[in-house]
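Example record

The entry below shows one chain as it appears in the dataset: sequence first, then structure tokens.
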Amino acid sequence: MLTGLSIHNVVLIDQLNLEPLSGFTALTGETGAGKSILLDALSLALGHKADLGFIRANTDQATVVATFSLSAFPKEHPLKDLLNEHDLLDDDDELLLKRTLHRTQKGKAFVNDQPISTALLKQIGDFLLHVHGQHDHLLNETLHKTLLDDFANNTRPAFNEALCTLKNTYKAWLDAEQAYLDFEQTLITQKERESFYVEVRRDLEGLTLAHGNEERLIEERHGLQQLGKIIATVEQTLKGLDTPTSWINTLYSFQKNLERCDGVSLKPLQNAIQALSRAGIELTEAQTELKTLFDADRTAAADLEAIDEQLHLLRSFARKYKITTDGLCDLLAEAKQATLDEGDIILQKRALENALTAAKQAYDAVESIVFDHRLQAAKALTDTVMEQLPDLKLDRAVFDVRIQKASKPSSDGGHTAAFWVSMNQGQDLAPLAKTASGGEMARLMLVLKMIVARTTMMPTLIFDEIDTGVGGAVASAIGRKLRELGSHVQVLSITHSPQVAALAHHHWRIIKTEENKATRTSVTPLTSDARINEIARMLAGDILTDEARQAAIRLMN
């Protein structure tokens, strides 16, 4: 809930610090005192559109800070998920939203002293507080299904799971449908390019194609070129080892001569014989490796020619089809797919058709479950509203939630929901926006908002003159409803009705004063006596009388 509001240099407010309490708080004051300025300031803190006209005259910067307690939100809640995602949630479950406007610089937004975008600030603010006017978003029929779903989610535990499943099956259905359409479009395109694909297969099927093929051939070509550069030295070395006499045979002859000596047991002589033996072995290995290189060179020219030919073909076809050499591999695969025989095409199309049918059937099955949940929730919501209407002197009114088939299925079902009402006996039911008069509309809206507030976990609600145009017993009924709502959520109501203000748990008076050629708006929490005087003023005008004070006390009691 809203626990603190600090406003600095916003329109007529130079400095204001408020500490809203739980329950129902009435905000009263004379017309033009600046009650709407509080709403404008709050809208800034919640990320709504800014206007430099909000900045107080003769100042450069306006600042609004709104503090909220998150204790009412469960650990697993979209708001906390959003805050954690952006690393904005503190351990103390308190949230501080700050917005600044500057005449010459870009405005700034903060959450818990961390700079954020105004879009994110609004996204966060939408979870925390909502302002209700006399005629507001409940008249938008496109939102009625959302409100019904919120009610269903709160009253029917299995509904949310079914709705999530429905969204997943709808996506699977769309994916299957898109796959089928893509295949059909591919067949059309392939038919149009059939001669082109025939030419592609004729050009490329004889080639060895793979991603990275050009790089591999270039590397092999480089290796063969390097071999050609050293092969003359290899040949000269081999000739030197064999002429005029074989060095290996010479070493072997030296070794045998030493072995025949009488002093063969002498250690130095033995070491010399072993050294000659090792030298002969090493020289033999060197000769073998050099012969391997020399023999390889005999086929190197042919291999190099073949590689050059492959590279030439790859690059020429890449230029012809205006793609990379790696792209030739994909183009050939596409061409083969395009020239499938009729049997393969029929099998693929049938598989896609079966997948599409199965996905549609899965969606229909889950949609039927969601539809049944909505029907039951619509009946429960209708009964709940009808129970509340007599309390607001709407005994003759009839409310109904109608479920109708939508023009096309969507991720949240194949049906729409709309609120229909009849405000007078004998009057036909009609859509909500086309039926109720101003006063009746306000009372009906209040009932709906009370129910919505309990089902959407909105911790703070502000009502902006929702009691306009009503008085007497009806206004008292509205006050009782707001007080009842205040036992569930934090309620602030801007009101001109003394009957409504008298039933509030708390009361603030908004005053506009002029001093030193400057106009200021201030807010004063009222004590019991001051509150009696304010309600008496609302009843009788500026001149307080004992009768007005006694009437105010009776209203408060």
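Notes for this example: Residues 195-342 form one domain. Residues 42 and 66 are 7 Å apart (CA to CA).
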